[in-house]
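thought: user wants a sequence for this fold. calling inverse folding tool.
action: design(structure=
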């Protein structure tokens, strides 16, 4: 039984061979926006992120840096935590796969699957991409290059333990048939469905040629394959295998947020592991696209990385958070460009939102003694009321389906409409002749901004705090289910002009 008032959302756990960059920040910011949104909707929310610290890839990175793998992990984890804090990521728990509790959970899950008869010993002989920690078949890649990262793979032959993935083909297909929204966007669902239909092959889940990993409980000479280890974080992060309150409350996860590169592991291997262990699969896997640079995926190894610091020194944390979710529809790829960033920042945040706030507060100061005036409900502009009503509905609908850019577009419709409203009604003329109408105009503008601040809160929490201080509503208890009726801001509320929310950026 799924508790409908809880929300459990996760990011991938990131490899500790690289510091956080724009790509990893993207998923983590998106998860944070969703978690914050759900909290505002009254859901008890658990937001899990963390780091993936075992396996050959990390071992090699550590060796080449002259460090023990755990030392490397400790350093990079510190960096992750610092950057997430700076980006205002409000996670519930940061999990590391080197934690004892996690190791126990992985071994426990492994035993469960073994007891169910789904582990057997065999010989692996084939190709492996260490960068992606994945086995490659010649069927998927006759040139032996990794189909995901295009690197040359390595041949190895080893005695391994296998998980009977093939046994779950029919179950997996029926699961997909019955849960058409299990994988989103739907194009990804279709891809996976077609691939599962073609057949599932058993997968090796142990390695014996190095020991940087979790010891296999049934054979100490092996460590558990790093993907088996990593995927289990979604359980161990909420207390598995103990039947803790968190585990009972939050499993199954509402959504695993990932990028398309790791969809197979999440949408096929993981649910089959869970089915074997008698646990429910997650409710949804959402696979977003890649940030690219000249059409190449942004990644450390490609040497085309943009770090959050490169952006936030100039555009602020909220400039980055806004841009990443506004610029490309969640699910598609997109090229990162400082020109596009600057344009959106200056035009949408600076000119449209920032100026609307400044104009409104300045007018309330000038024409209404710095306090929100009384208004006359019969004089409230009908188009504004109608747009507020209709966009609010679709903003929530877009948010529920991870259509962040469309939700923001809707919010900007309200912002643009409000700026036009000022230009049309010309409050400076009303001040001379029609004071009662002027009061209603000022009230409408401050109230509309209050509503906007709530919808934008998950995207730009710090700027919205500041904006709400300027509007005099920072102590308001906000909630998306209850706070959005027009007419909530109290006449008499004191506004105060502050610094521009998004100061103009002149060059790159
Ligand atoms: N450790 C595995 C995940 C295990 S989850 C059980 C892994 N780690 S990773 O460090 O390579 O992170 C991959 C994830 O980082 C992607 O799925 C995506 O969420 C994010 N991104 C990394 N580069 C990215 C882009 N250039 N663009 C968008 N997202 C990116 O895979």
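)
observation: tool returned 508 residues.
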């Amino acid at each position: 039984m799924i508790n409908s008032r809880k929300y459990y959302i996760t990011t991938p756990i990131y490899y500790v061979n690289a510091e956080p960059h724009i790509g990893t920040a993207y998923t983590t910011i998106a998860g944070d926006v969703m978690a914050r949104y759900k909290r505002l909707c009254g859901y008890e929310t658990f937001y899990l992120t963390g780091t993936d610290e075992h396996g050959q890839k990390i071992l090699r990175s550590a060796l080449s840096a002259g460090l023990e793998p755990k030392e490397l992990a400790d350093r990079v984890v510190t960096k992750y935590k610092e950057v997430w804090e700076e980006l205002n990521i409000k996670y519930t728990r940061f999990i590391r796969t080197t934690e004892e509790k996690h190791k126990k959970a992985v071994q426990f899950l492994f035993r469960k699957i073994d007891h169910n008869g789904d582990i057997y010993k065999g010989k692996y002989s084939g190709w492996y991409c260490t960068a992606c920690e994945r086995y490659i078949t010649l069927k998927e890649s006759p040139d032996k290059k990794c189909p995901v990262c295009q690197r040359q793979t390595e041949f190895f032959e080893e005695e391994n333990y296998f998980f009977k993935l093939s046994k779950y083909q029919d179950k997996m297909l029926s699961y997909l048939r019955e849960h058409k929204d299990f994988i989103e966007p739907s194009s990804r669902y279709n891809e996976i469905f077609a691939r599962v239909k073609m057949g599932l092959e058993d997968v090796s889940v142990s390695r014996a040629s190095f020991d940087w990993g979790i010891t296999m409980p049934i054979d100490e000479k092996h460590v558990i394959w790093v993907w088996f280890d990593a995927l289990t974080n979604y359980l161990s992060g909420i207390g598995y295998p103990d039947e803790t309150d968190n585990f009972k409350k939050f499993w199954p996860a509402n959504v695993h947020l990932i990028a398309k590169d790791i969809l197979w592991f999440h949408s096929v291997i993981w649910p089959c592991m869970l089915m074997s262990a008698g646990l429910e699969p997650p409710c949804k896997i959402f696979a977003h696209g890649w940030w690219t640079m000249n059409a190449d995926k942004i990644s450390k190894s490609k040497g085309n990385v943009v770090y959050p610091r490169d952006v936030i020194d100039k555009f602020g944390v909220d400039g980055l958070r806004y841009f990443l979710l506004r610029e490309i529809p969640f699910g598609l790829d997109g090229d990162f460009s400082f020109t596009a960033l600057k344009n959106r920042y200056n035009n949408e945040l600076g000119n449209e939102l920032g100026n609307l706030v400044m104009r409104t507060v300045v007018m309330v100061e000038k024409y209404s003694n710095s306090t929100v005036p009384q208004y006359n409900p019969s004089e409230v502009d009908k188009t504004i009321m109608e747009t507020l009503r209709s966009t609010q509905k679709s903003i929530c609908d877009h948010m529920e389906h991870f259509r962040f850019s469309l939700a923001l577009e809707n919010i900007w419709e309200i912002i643009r409409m409000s700026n036009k409203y000022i230009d049309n009604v010309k409050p400076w003329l009303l001040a001379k002749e029609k004071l009662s109408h002027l009061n209603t105009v000022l009230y409408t503008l401050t109230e509309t901004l209050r509503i906007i601040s709530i919808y934008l809160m998950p995207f730009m929490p710090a700027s919205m705090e500041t904006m709400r201080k300027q509007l005099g509503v920072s102590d308001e208890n906000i909630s998306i289910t209850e706070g959005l009726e027009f007419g909530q801001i109290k006449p008499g509320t004191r506004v105060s002009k502050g610094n521009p929310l998004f100061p103009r950026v002149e060059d790159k």
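thought: summarizing for user.
answer: Here is the designed sequence. The longest strand covers residues 119-129.
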